[in-house]
Structure formats: C-alpha cells, structure tokens
Specification:
- The protein is of the alpha/beta class.
- Helices cover about 40% and strands about 20% of the residues.
- The chain has 5 helices and 5 strands; from the N terminus they run αββααβαββα.
- It has helices at about 1-25, 50, 60-70, 90-95, 140-155, and strands at about 30-35, 40-45, 80-85, 100-105, 130-135.
- The protein has a 5-stranded mixed sheet.
- A hairpin with a 4-residue loop joins strand 1 and strand 2 (about 40-45).
- The termini are far apart.
Length: about 160
C-alpha cells in the first residue's frame, strides 16, 4: 500500500508540472525522477516552444538534471514518473539512462513507444531491462491533456 501511495504522490507532483507546461502554452506533460529511497532527484516539464528545442520534452529535461546531479549518465536506481507514455526519443533516453522503473499516467495512441504504438523496452533495440507500470492517475492525466488540446483548438 505504501508503494501505491508513493506512486500517487509523485504522479500528482508530475501533474502539477504538466499543468505548468500547459499554462505556458506547452503540451501538458510533467516528469519527476526519484531514487530507490523515494527521494526527489529532478523534474521537468515540456518546454519545446519556450526553448525552440525539439528535445525539450519533460522526460529528457528530468533525465538531464538527474545526470547532472549525480555526475553520471547511469540512473540505475531511479524511477521516472511521467504523465504521458513516452515517445520514441524519450523511451530511448530512458533505456540508455538505465532507469530502473518507468511509471506513466496515460497511454499515447499516437506516439507511445513503451506499450501502445511501439514497445521499445521489450524490443531487441533495448539493452537494459525496464520495469514499467502504466495507468497511475490515468483519468487525471487524460483529462488534463484532453482539456488542453480542446482549449488550443477553441472547442468547449
């Protein structure tokens, strides 16, 4: 039960970051990295528009900050929480960073590269085992994305 409470807590924190991204005109995705002891390591939220950098996804930003903090690219004992299933670029970075666990909120039926459209972690392209848990705060993650896209399209 403690593990589920931790997952809910960190996904709520990622949702706060996702909302911040949405408020700044970015697709609302937030990410948090914690260590094995459940201590906060780093965070990120989408900033592609702000930085005009196509790699400025929430996961990539959080991974870069964690690597800087530890002074290594190996994040073996870390867990990444992200509100949306990672795309191929982010899935590749997660695998290459050697993250132990990925927990995401909602499937991405357009570009999801963990389980939905592609399955990079279980493919021959992956050189690292990755634990994956999906569906944590799924409804909240989906609703945030849906409402943001509807507001961008002028729908109500």
């Amino acid at each position: 039960m403690v593990e589920l409470e931790n997952h809910l807590y960190w996904m709520n924190e990622a949702l706060i970051l996702a909302q911040k991204a949405g408020d700044e005109g970015e697709i609302p995705v937030g990410a948090i990295i914690v260590d094995r002891a459940n201590n906060f390591i780093s965070s990120g939220y989408n900033q592609k528009e702000k930085t005009q950098d196509c790699t400025a996804h929430a996961e990539i930003i959080a991974i870069r900050k964690a690597c800087d903090k530890f002074g290594t690219w190996r994040l073996n004992d870390c867990c990444l929480y992200v509100t949306l299933e990672p795309c191929p670029m982010c899935a590749g970075a997660i695998i290459h960073a050697r993250l132990k666990t990925l927990i995401y909120g909602v499937d991405d039926f357009k570009t999801g590269a963990i389980r939905t459209v592609l399955n990079l972690p279980d493919s021959l392209a992956s050189n690292h085992p990755l634990e994956v848990f999906a569906g944590i705060k799924e409804t909240a993650c989906r609703n945030l994305l849906t409402s943001w896209f509807e507001s961008q399209r002028g729908c109500h």
